[in-house]
Amino acid sequence: MQIVCMEEHSSGLWNLAKYNVKDATFIHFDAHLDIAYIGQGIIEKIEEAQTPEELRELEEILWYQPSKGFLGFHCGNFLYPAIKKGMIKHFVWVMSNEKRSHVSVFKKIITTLGGVTEEDYFSLTVNDGIIRGKLFGIDFTVLTLNELAKLSFEEEVIIDIDIDYFFDLNSKLPWIELEDFVQRIEPLLNWTELVMICNSVQSGHVPATFSFYTNYLLGLIKGEDVKKHQQEKAKIEEIIRNNSVGSFAYLEKDLKSRSLLMLNSLYQFKEEEIQAVTNELTDSYLKGLLLNFYNPQKALNCFMELESSYKGPRFLLSLGRALIRVSRFSDAVPYFEQVLELEANWMAYFSLGVCYYHLRKCDQAGTFF
């Protein structure tokens, strides 16, 4: 059994290529689905890549940097090209947090997922708590850890674990103990040829305070002594109990780590809490991303400060969407047009449709929709 650890989950794509994975049953333990739609232009670039090294050159990390474009694959969509390249024939998403309805959550996700055909959508059925059907032309299953024991596999599987699977960023502690998790997937470990573990700290999906969790999980899978990690976790639990910490974000001493965690779980925070963090931030782009949910005019001011420095599609899209939020639709149009001059970006097309709709130019809006 090969075990591969990575910081960014997007690295999973070129690791699958490295180990020559084809037609796999792929068991995905993750807080996110990671198969967001990718435009045809980028898919063509990925399909042209013949080696893991060529794929790695198309990997996009540190999504919150304004200099970045949408020119490759990232942690939120890397499994879409994996499906397209024939690496996966059966996708099994084991959803986290068994206390919520995974069926209703998945229904919301599937209705906003690009590239899903009507045939795929109506193929999905629910029976005994398990969703089954087709998605992007392959077998697709969604369930929770409780239902996982109901599945049987007749061939080797690939196990893919994102450490963010264990964290509900609106809560104080991981929703399941790692020891319990490993015990429950032990039958799967006997059927696997490859285990991928993603740390997800750098992108703000896992608290930096818990950056040891990858090694903790790795030690449990290998049967090693994990007492050091258990003690570290116990110290964090004590801090939480003694300080009435409201969320993981407040455990972070590093301001950027705290900001990224808040950005990934914004709706749990009040405007004054966001404001308190943004008052300390010197990174105008990150500050703008945070403010855009609560004070779009201030967010716009942050982005405008950077306009002369950044011309990449990611920044232009952020600026244009901030203009939409303050109803400056005419002003937003040129920024989305600039994005499309750089790349075929579905969000830019959609945003132009929104602008022209509000400008009462429905024919043009329809073209972009």
Q: Can you describe what's shown?
A:
47% of the residues lie in helices and 13% in strands. The protein has 18 helices and eight strands. An eight-stranded mixed β-sheet has the order 1-8-7-2-3-6-5-4. Helix 15 (313-325) runs parallel beside helix 17 (346-358), helix 16 (329-342) packs antiparallel against helix 17 (346-358) and helix 17 packs antiparallel against helix 18 (362-368).
Proportion of beta-strand residues:
5-15%
What is the terminal separation in angstroms? Answer: 46 Å
| Structural class category | alpha/beta
Radius of gyration: 21 Å
List its salient traits.
single chain; 369 residues; alpha/beta; eight-stranded mixed β-sheet; 8 strands; 47% helix; 13% strand
Summarize the model shown.
The chain is an alpha/beta fold and 369 residues long. The chain has helices at 11-18, 40-48, 52-56, 79-84, 102-112, 118-123, 145-148, 178-189, 213-222, 227-243, 255-263, 271-280, 284-291, 296-305, 313-325, 329-342, 346-358, 362-368, and strands at residues 2-6, 24-29, 88-95, 125-127, 130-135, 138-144, 157-162, 192-198.
